[in-house]
Design brief:
296 residues; mainly alpha; two-stranded antiparallel sheet; two-stranded antiparallel ribbon; 4 strands; extended
């Protein structure tokens, strides 16, 4: 009876983890009974994570380390937004506010009091602001492109703000959970950060994995999509190898083609993954693969 009471007391310290994502389709494996240990004391947002991938994939722990901390991430995102504005503004200026006939001396100057053979300067080729505005308003396609560029910039701004919120939480995670101050992050290699993460998992679990978290688990989560891509290239499932006359076999994979393949296979609405880590249940059924391949 004493042993039974001891077991009951230990069991009351655990509660079942609800809504746990299943890796296998329903009916193929028995549902495992995962128990979550409820620790005493204050808890943070990173304790007992249901999906460990949300803390190990960009823009989280790994990318935070690779991008050298929150200050560098913030500066990089701000400069990217400023760069986009500069490219759009300068391109509009070159299209609407420059008199190229004067700039290339195909027409003599008519708005400056200088001899005809004098050297042409940049201010001579720049149109006045009212004339530049009239040329801009008269071009419907250019106005459409500017509106489209503004919408893209706003989307990038919202995305950057959302990323910064996540990076700020990871900054707190590094400081409070891993014991790495922001100013010392550059002195730690990823192997050092990974060792602290594994030690934290053993001391105060971040999640409830099916087995103890290892370096291989972390690498699989970070490189999952890349590993799938490499495997499909090795098995000649992706059209990246071509045979050209005189040159023989070549590998051709542009950034645009890579983006389309990732959208089709990993991130799009008809992708093989239902989230960042779990395959769709029907993909893992051998009987449905031929139909899925035809649909893809």
């Amino acid at each position: 009876m004493a042993e039974q009471g001891e077991e009951d007391r230990e069991y009351r310290e655990y509660r079942r983890l609800e809504e746990c994502e299943e890796d296998s389709p329903p009916g193929e494996e028995e549902e495992e009974q995962l128990l979550l240990h409820v620790t005493e004391g204050p808890t943070d947002s990173w304790h007992h994570i249901k999906d460990l991938d949300i803390s190990l994939t960009p823009p989280y722990i790994y990318q935070f380390h690779q991008r050298n901390g929150f200050a560098c991430v913030l500066l990089s995102d701000v400069l990217e937004l400023v760069q986009f504005l500069f490219v759009v503004t300068f391109s509009t200026f070159l299209l609407c506010c420059v008199d190229y006939d004067v700039l290339f001396a195909t027409r003599p100057l008519n708005h400056s009091h200088v001899p005809e053979r004098a050297k042409v300067t940049l201010p001579d080729a720049v149109l006045p602001a009212p004339q530049c505005a009239r040329r801009l308003r008269s071009s419907g396609w250019l106005l459409f492109l500017l509106v489209l560029a503004g919408a893209v910039w706003l989307c990038r701004l919202v995305t950057a703000l959302r990323r910064l919120v996540g990076y700020w939480e990871i900054r707190s995670f590094y400081i409070r959970a891993l014991g790495i101050p922001a100013e010392e992050l550059c002195n730690h290699s990823w192997q050092s950060v990974q060792a602290r993460l594994l030690a934290l998992q053993r001391r105060q679990p971040l999640c409830v994995p099916r087995r103890e978290l290892t370096e291989l688990d972390i690498h699989h989560r970070i490189l999952r999509f890349r590993n799938y891509t490499v495997a499909m290239v090795n098995k000649s499932l992706l059209p990246v190898r071509f045979r050209l006359p005189l040159l023989g076999p070549v590998v051709f994979l542009t950034r645009g083609l890579q983006f389309n393949l990732e959208l089709l296979l990993f991130r799009g609405p008809a992708a093989l993954f239902q989230n960042t880590w779990s395959l769709r249940p029907q993909v893992k059924r051998a009987g449905a693969r031929r139909a899925l391949a035809r649909g893809l």
